Amino acid sequence: MDIALLVIGFLCILIGILGSFLPVLPGPPISWIGLLLLHLTEAVPENWWFLGITLFFALLITIMDYVIPAMGTKKFGGSKAGMYGSIIGLLIGLFLPIPGGIIIGAFVGAFVGEMSKNTDQKIALKAAFGSFLGFLTGTFMKFLITIIYAGLFIWKAIEHGGALFTFQ
């Protein structure tokens, strides 16, 4: 059972890392589930303080991911159309066969979204830039926390590895 929890937990960590880039997956909470599964094994001692603190940060980063792009868009004079355009552009950018398709898609989407609301190209470009910066900031925070959780997972699995890989 421990091996199954270890493998499923590691898959959650990997899906969480992917989720830091894909807006449809909540990356940090999925990575946290990986840490939880690791602590449910018999080899790794349960540490509810560790799990509570890491859950707090996973939820905080997830909430901030929604707040920061809105703040960036608002600070640069944008609207919700720019934020939605950024998300749609990101999804389209996933399928572009060019390097940086996600980034280009998010920026172009934010610009097109703002142009649908504002006829002034300069204002739309400024707002799209704000939305784009907010998106990048949120993505970076999610990626950073999921990488930290991956490191913690690997460290704890190696630390207790002997007990995890003994077949009883």
TrEMBL record:
The keyword Membrane applies. The chain crosses the membrane at residues 50-68, 88-112, 132-155. Keywords: Membrane, Transmembrane, Transmembrane helix. InterPro entries: DUF456. The keyword Nucleotide-binding does not apply. It holds the Pfam family DUF456. This is DUF456 domain-containing protein. It comes from Croceitalea vernalis.
